[in-house]
Amino acid sequence: MHVTDLGHVVVLAGGLSHERDVSLRSGTRVAEELRSVGVDVEVRDADASFVAEALRTPPDVVLPLLHGEQGEDGSLRTVLDLLSVPYVGADPVASRTAFDKPIANGVAAAAGLAVPQSVVLPHAMFRDLGAQVLLDGLVSSLGLPLAVQPARGGSALGASIVHDAAELPSAMVGCFAYGQDAMVQRFVAGTEVAVAVVDTGGGPRALPPVEIVPDGGFYDYQARYTAGATEFFVPARLPAPVLDEVARVALTAHAALGLRDLSRSDMIVAPDGTVTWLEVNVAPGMTETSLVPLAVSGAGLDLGTLVVELLAQAQARGTGA
Amino acid sequence: MSSPSPSGETPLSHRDQGRSLRHGSRLDSYVDAYAERTLGMTASQIRSLFAVASRPEVVSLAGGMPTIASLPLDVIGDRIAELVRSDGQAALQYGSGQGDPRLREQITDVMRTVGIAGHPDDVVVTVGSQQALDLVTRIFIDPGDAVLVEAPSYVGALSTFRSYQASIHHVQMDDEGLVPQALREALAALAAAGTRPKFLYTIPSYQNPAGVSQPLARRREILEIARAAELLVVEDDPYGLLGFSGEPPRALRADSDDGVIYLGSFSKTFAPGLRVGWALAPHAVREKLVLAAEASVLCPPAFTQMVVSRYLDTTDWMGQVKVFRELYRERRDAMLQALTAHFPPGSHWTRPDGGFYVWLTLPEGLDSQAMLPRAVTARVAYVPGTAFYADGFGTRSMRLSYCYPTPERIDEGIRRLAGVVEAEIDLVATFGTGHLAGRTGLGLPAPDLT
Q1: The domain containing residue A164 runs over which residues?
Q2: How many domains does chain A have?
Q3: CB contact under 8 A, B5 and A209
Q4: What is the pTM of this model?
Q5: Which of A150, A214, A215, B179 is least surrounded by Cβ atoms within 10 Å, i.e. has the fewest?
Q6: CATH of the domain at A135
Q7: B235: closest CA among B166, B139, B132, B164?
Q8: Do A299 and B16 touch (CB under 8 A)?
Q9: Sequence-ordered strand ranges (E) for A2-117
Q10: What CATH code is carried by the domain that includes residue A43?
Q11: Residue A56 is a catalytic residue
């Protein structure tokens, strides 16, 4: 296949979510990779001009790299379906399911994956029933330490790890700044691993697992986007059977959630080799410090070439409307 | 980048030969090579939120961008074309490290409006007054040296001081700016600890971020304290000509030739894109500033200096300053009216008589930094108070700028912000806290936040 067959490719990046900055960096990075293999590509923001422009000159195929709400909750993909524009990645329903962490957790658990014990509550519930009694209940039922994060959203925004019950109210306030629902989980200790799944036509395949070792112990926003603040190992320094197991877990989640083309599952491997699945991203980050580009490189692949194959496949699939 | 592409038939395995990072990678080959002063230069989730603030859907009360739309851009365009045609050989060539002599003369004329009788030989033209600040810090500060700054202070100054590893000590302000007694106490406390601060950094007129101004009597008292303590004063005065009533306030430098380094700028009175500012310094200090400037940038851009020079020569630049004053006064009024109309009880704010900023303090228990993501969701942005402190204070405060949005947008932005504050009051009432641990401010300033 020649890249010129793709026609005009639009990388959608930016948007109005809290992850706009990350999305812009992902978009710029992937566009560079695509240009380096000869693709006619344009980076476009999902703003008020997007629909009018897409109606006037419809893109031949779109790569959505909008992170956070709109980009990953299925709404933007619904618009692309309405516009009859083919795009890379999961359809709106699967995106919405995957983006909602509590729902995705339920789907993954039903597929036989181990997920952390968790409780999801909206702010209003704490206000109406009394915060202290609910917070005490969370600590006594889940134990410490706890991982607190918004039920929807990425880049660890609003997420924190609580070691002491006294820190929990602040963690809840920080979490509710990013969304209406908080997911409080029993913190799972172990090796943090991300596994990208790609499907360029021969069925979903796992790329080499990436092991994440943040300097401060917590893979927060700063550790994610400051070059040098985190050490990565590809493949992860795990025994071969465990490497096979994390790949199996990622493929299981990808299939159970009905995802397509590309996804990235994040998980924790306990010292005894037990794998706990945490979440999946349908528009994973593609910045200079992101995990999918590392996994692609670790597999001996070229990111631009891989994305071209995904774009060609999306184009062949056509529109979902 | 020419690696094999994935084929549909070949299963990819983690055991495939690839560019393995078996020994680990930090994605930065120089991670162990950086100077200590880069330690705070990291990604920040709060900073990243400002990427959203730049979208037109968001009312940004965060940036300190002047409204240059009110400049006579067609006239300026003609002047610039003429400059290149008639004097291009000089305008596009290297220039003097100290700055264009004609512009330095004109700068002394500008400074007369705030009472300063300076000599062109003692003026150093810089790439914005930010570079003047950098040069002053470079020639005075060794790692660990103490500097005194107002509480709160300009984020760009804190960033410069931090990058030279200064020890930053905040001094209390009230509605009339820096408090003289607090300055005495800070000096005494440092002296008791065996430390003598290298200088006091102050913005006496329409302070950034607080919007307050030092009355004349207080300026004299501060100068007297500095004189007695042999404390150098670095006076930053970007907003002095942008007052809304009466004459421009008299600069500290007007009453102390030898004890004050005065920093000026054309960014607010003309255009920030030209990056032309200056320092007026005592002779010996000026010598060192010029050498430091040459080591830094060889010379300030001849082109933009000549643009400023022609602008001052050929247009009614003071008339334009009056246009700016009226524009900003109208926006200040819009912001104060909107705050009174929309904000819930328990908040208070300053009432600036010039400049760009209102400093707002939230009800007890609220944290402006924790609240910012919620504000961005509501399509309004501000700068959290912690950005203006080197020590993690300022959680209850925020800076609101009225210089860029129209009065109608200001009203809409304040209305949205009031809704966010009300929701945050509800949240904090629920959990009994709004404070998060480990505050370090915003780190480095983005140009549109200064």
Answers
A1: 118-186
A2: 3
A3: no
A4: 0.89
A5: A215
A6: 3.30.1490.20
A7: B132
A8: yes
A9: 8-12, 40-44, 61-64
A10: 3.40.50.20
A11: no
